[in-house]
Amino acid sequence: MLQEGVIDRSVAEAVDDAYQRFYGYTPDHIRVTGDELITFLEDQGASVERLEGDHAERVVFVNCKQGTTLDTNAMNEHGVQAFNLDLWAVQEHAKALGVTDEQFITGASLLLYLATEIVLVEQKGKPKLPIRFMYDFFAYSSLKLLK
């Protein structure tokens, strides 16, 4: 479904499917929200970052390499801010919440992730950020993508 640097038809279909399913999803289906959700996910091993200040991200990463994450601190030390979604972790946490449809998990995650980028970047008058699907990366090699 996901290939480094490429959004193929199956990813586009997963996002479209998730978009359609969101319209049929009512608030009474949501059982865990806010701090309770954050606590639950942290108990499942999720890492939660509290961010402050202006957004100056230059790229959007979708990390698909199991057990890894982008070293955002190292990126920041080099003067590069980046959004990062550990898609593999989202899939694990969604399953812990009882969501088992992997295509929906992928599509919904990407849809919400892109919506976040739109709100925090594009609606603030900044240009759309490039999206990079990554399967094996280190912060320093990722910097090459930004030149």
Keywords:
single chain; 147 residues; alpha/beta; two-stranded antiparallel ribbon; 6 helices; 5 strands; 14% strand; globular; disordered N terminus; disordered C terminus
Task: Characterise the protein shown here.
With 147 residues, this protein is an alpha/beta fold. It has one domain (2-146). It is 44% helix and 14% strand. The protein has six helices and five strands. The protein has helices spanning 9-23, 34-43, 72-77, 87-96, 102-120, 139-143; strands at 2-3, 6-7, 57-63, 81-86, 131-134. The strands form two sheets. Strands 4-3-5 form a three-stranded parallel sheet. A two-stranded antiparallel ribbon has the order 1-2. The protein is globular and about 40 Å long.
